[in-house]
Structure formats: C-alpha cells, structure tokens
Specification:
Elements (H helix, E strand, L loop, with lengths): L6 E5 L1 E5 L2 E6 L6 H10 L14 E4 L2 E7 L2 E5 L7 E4 L3 E4 L6 E8 L15 E4 L2 E7 L7 H10 L1 H4 L4
Parallel strand pairs: 3-9, 9-11
Antiparallel strand pairs: 1-5, 2-3, 2-4, 5-6, 6-9, 7-8, 10-11
Amino acid sequence: MDGARHTMVVAGTTIARRGRGVLIRGASGSGKSDLALRALTQPLRLPGEDEAVTFDFVSDDQTVIKQNDGELYASAPETIAGLIEARGIGLIAWPCADAVTLALVADTEREGIKRLPEPRDSRCQLLDVALNRIDIIARENSSVVKLAIALAGLERRFPGC
C-alpha cells in the first residue's frame, strides 16, 4: 500500500498520559493549547492508580498521524517539535515525546455536548482506524480530568457511578 495514504497531518494538539495519546481538535482560539498546558503541569491520580502523573507533550497546532498494523501513532512535525503556544506570551520550548499511540480524539468546537453520550456517537475515523472520541469544553476546570478518565476508560468500567 502507498505510505502516503497511511500518514496525514491534522490540525490539532496532542498530549499523552501513560503512553496513550489524545488529539485535541477545534477552531483557533478554542483552548486547545491552554488545555494542553494545564494537562502538562497538573499532576493527576485517578482511582486505582498508585501515583499522580502529568500528561506528556507531543505536538501543538499540527500533529502527524501514521498508521502501522492497525494502530495510529502521533508525533510533531519536525518544524514545530518541542514548541507550544502560550497565547499572549508566544511560543515556548517544551520537551516532547517522539511518538505515542493515539487512543482518543477530543473535539472542542462542538455545540450541545451530551451529558451521557451513546457509545455509537463516540467514535471517529482517522485513516483506516476507528478511535474513541469525546466532546469537551477545553476551558472547563475539569477538562484535564475528563481527558484522563476517557483515556483510562473509567467511564466504561464503572457504569452507573
């Protein structure tokens, strides 16, 4: 198969927790980088975890996604690797992961976020791979926790709680 079909560059910021990446998509100014900065600096411990950890930085503004053996991997384009925007301050250097397994897509620009979405409404396709997807309001204080919960799959492990 053509390698170009298995690689794409998407507009979005990517962070990872415990090796699992989340692509945060949305319009310019929707809070993607702000959400990432909070996730990179706020240690968080979910139920069942031994210690609090922060998210790792992968890429800001654009993310390279590659498909390999049915898995998606996210990394930064070489030209912006290690740079994240702090609106009102500018670009700042931040250590970044080379590539992470992409496990989740979080969309920030959707209106009418459902309180309890149906599982069938929570999927999207990138390249040839279906991924879990959530809607999120990036500027909510709880958005970092919601990303961690969705990555860990806690909403499925403890239904009805």
